[in-house]
Amino acid sequence: MAEDLYPVPESWAADARVTAEGYATDYARSLDDATRFWLERADSLEWVSKPTVADESSFEEATFGVKWFADGVLNVSANCIDRHLATRRDQIAIIWEPDSPAADPRFITFTELHAEVCRFANVLKAQGVRKDDRVTLYLPMIPEAAFAMLACARIGAVHSIVFGGFSPEALAGRITDCDSRIVVTVDEGRRGGKTVPLKANVDAAAKLVTCLDTVIVVRATGGGVEMQPGRDIWYDEAAASVAAECAPEPMNAEDPLFLLYTSGSTGKPKGVLHTTGGYLLWASYTHACVFDCRDGDTYWCAADVGWVTGHSYIVYGPLANGVTTLMYEGVPNWPSPARMWQVVDRHKVTQLYTAPTALRALMKEGDDFVTGTSRASLRLLGSVGEPINPEAWRWYHDVVGEGRCPIVDTWWQTETGGHMITPLPGATALKPGSAASPFFGVEPLLVDAEGKVLEGATEGNLVIARSWPGQMRTVWGDHERFFQTYFSTYPGFYFTGDGARRDADGYWWITGRVDDVINVSGHRMGTAEVESALVLHRTVAEAAVVGFPHEIKGQGIYAYVTLNAGDPPSDALRKELVTWVRGEIGPIATPDAIQFTPGLPKTRSGKIMRRILRKIAEGDVSSLGDTSTLADPSVVDDLVANRVG
Ligand code: WTA
């Protein structure tokens, strides 16, 4: 439909970094002449020793591995800081906007960033942290989170950030999995006018682990915390006695940079490992092409550093490109639904990158909160984390961007390190809800359930046919799981876990997860994780969890729970189970609905038929399909009759 195609605005067509012709030519080259293409692109980084090889990866079982620029040597923090000092010493690197609009923002220049990161690195070193050691960061959205990340990168330590919304149990699991002996945290975090007891959570987690011997505590709110002598250190006290100079450690391109735990279909969250050279090139090059920042711009990615979006697009991508990046401590709707747009005006934000769930929540509050602000500085809008529905897309485009800003709807994953399918602002005519075209070097394909490659306009499972520099390298401690999870379903391809459609114009539309991962407010949650948490409760015999469409969150969490004999269902127990899951995993795993059921729909071999559970949760009970293979088909009648919602 012609009216649904938004052409590249003239202001962008004139001098964009990538034009429509440039995209076509370079995309073809990135696949046909990949080695030369990527070695040229790698020149945008500062290397201690330049790589002479590019992609040496294989998705085949016998030769399996992901490897890029393997003979290159560089340091990520030197790329994000030191190399800008000659030309950008006094430019703001990080703008920090506090939770409360009444508090003062912080402006950190590249010179100051250099000193802060060196000091942080020296504090870590003084605590015995060495190259390859894992450092767990459990921090809110304060500049020290970026300092700590870059400090780890500077000395070759591997950071593992745990989102501040995760519970002590979840934190403990992640500390133990990567055998991390040190945690960096704060006294308390601040979000939406409330405080979050992060240090107290670390204390609780510490009781569940054996490897932890040091906790560095950044003073943020000044709220009282207990310090355990011999284990806990105040950051400001330690930092007072170290130098503000620390030479960056030369790292091999394939040395680990960070670990980030993410949810999958089965089992515990996996530690996704990213390495140094390929990841930094991917984060910086995608950031440069997709957001197209210019000198003087203020770029704002409204994610949290606890997620991959914060890693690649608050810290590493923009700073590697010498761009001023805004870090916001708070939430989109506090103290009012106008807050995001007020922050845009306060700091003259030029590029804004946020999630559809935030847009849907703000859209519901009415346009006045938006139109009461100027937003004249905005030139580009971005979306990430989940499919954006056309209604939210149009509101973002027409109301927030007043029709003048292109929207880049970027599809990617923790595993991909950076953008994979996305429009480019100066090159791509937009369709609301479509992620449009593959980024350079990305070769997406659609396959059917048997793995047969599908051609033309069609829908299927989304796979990627070849490696790209930002691809994850392994699952921490379990390389076999890496292969099994992503490369065994469709041999020879990386399987994304997403479904997608390609239309007659070749545009890509991501339709959502096709595995047992649900996407709640743009956050990934494994149904298996929520089920494991539920069955740990003394009253629960069995649990099955599915996603269902949710107006604001995209997907909500629906749990079917069978209680032990003698434990009667009640509203009080329902509340208790909700609190229980929040305690085991964190608030992001809060079930939206719990249905008590005497039994679950199982096949005669004992397999739960999730298809039926999904349909009932969606409220689509008229088309449950064939239930004759169930061991006890009458279970379904009870499930339908007692549906919650
Ligand atoms: C979903 C977040 C549609 C998708 C960067 C993917 C999206 C999962 C989009 C990864 C988008 C992310 N359109 N779906 N633009 N971006 N997703 O690892 O299902 O937290 O597999 O990475 O989010 O979530 P993750």
From TrEMBL:
Catalytic activity of the protein = acetate + ATP + CoA = acetyl-CoA + AMP + diphosphate
Enzyme kind, highest EC tier? ligase
* InterPro entries, sorted: Ac_CoA_lig, ACAS_N, AMP-bd_C, AMP-bd_C_sf, AMP-binding_CS, AMP-dep_synth/lig_dom, ANL_N_sf
Whether Transcription counts among this entry's keywords is no
Please list the cofactors this protein needs: Mg(2+)
Q: How is it modified after translation?
A: Acetylated. Deacetylation by the SIR2-homolog deacetylase activates the enzyme.
CDD domains assigned to the protein according to its UniProt record, in alphabetical order: ACS (cd05966)
Entry superkingdom: Bacteria
Instruction: Indicate which residues the UniProt annotation says bind Mg(2+).
Output: 535, 537, 540
Where do the AMP-dependent synthetase/ligase domain residues begin and end?
Answer: 82-467
Residues that coordinate or bind ATP: 385-387, 409-414, 498, 513, 524
Entries under PANTHER family matching the protein = ACETYL-COENZYME A SYNTHETASE (PTHR24095), ACETYL-COENZYME A SYNTHETASE 1 (PTHR24095:SF14)
Alphabetical list of NCBIfam families matching this protein: Ac_CoA_lig_AcsA, PRK00174.1
Q: What is the protein's given name?
A: Acetyl-coenzyme A synthetase
